Amino acid sequence: MKSNGFDVKFSQPPLRRRFSRRGFMRGLIPIYRYLLALLALSGIAVSYFAIIPAAHVSRLTMTVNFFSYFTIQSNLLLAAILLCAQIVPRSSIGQWASRPSIRGALLIYVGIAGIVYVFMLRDVWHPRGWQLFGDQILHYCVPVLYALDWVFLSERGKLSWRDMLWWLAFPAAYSVYTLAHGYVSRFYPYPFLDVRDIGLEAVLLNMALLATAFLVLGGALTFLDWVSTRQRVFRRA
Based on C-alpha coordinates, what's the Rg of the chain? Predict the structure, then answer.
């Protein structure tokens, strides 16, 4: 634009540039979550097809046993909920999947799966090849990447201390399923849940310890959510 023979250039207001950057980042969030869901599904698929069943084990039995692992179930749940929240965000299931309490539950589930693997299973389970690759995805990549999602991309100030108790529903249901399925099939997915090897009393004790771990991690998550909200309030003040 010219005024009195001089060129006048108008720069974009800083506030508008800030909003444009925010819009760009918000556009990347769905892409990140789509990729994370696909990564979890890829890890499950790689782990499944890398298994070579024994001669006396049918493919159906192997499949049921494969999906009896908490790692597989928690990653499958994470992928399904992330996809529902992105594909049908305005539906009832999409709105439910987008709740901060549901996102917090997913972080705890895949987080516990990763922690248990690192501290209790890594030294007794030695996968190779594609099976190792699938394990790395499910026990390391997915928990870390989803933790980054919760830290930087998720809504704050929506968690309550009552959520800690609701988050125990899935692990409790899994525990009941594991005992019932193990009683019928004689298959227990983890050494610390093997009733035949260590006895029912020891298994119940281990389940109680794991429930405590879920509560501790849930409490830490809720506390961090509360602290981050308080910090934002103080900054605005």
Answer: 23
Q: Is the whole-model pTM more than 0.90?
A: no
What confidence category does residue 59 fall into, taking pLDDT thresholds of 50, 70 and 90?
confident
Higher-confidence residue of 1 and 65: namely 65
d(CA 210, CA 120): 12
For range 74-96, the mean pLDDT = 96
| Encoded tokens for 218 | 């849930």
8 Å CB contact between 36 and 117: no
C-alpha span between 195 and 179 (Å, rounded): 8
In this predicted model, what pLDDT tens digit does every residue of 192-202 receive, in sequence order?
999 999 999 99
Find out whether 110 and 141 touch, Cβ atoms under 8 Å.
no
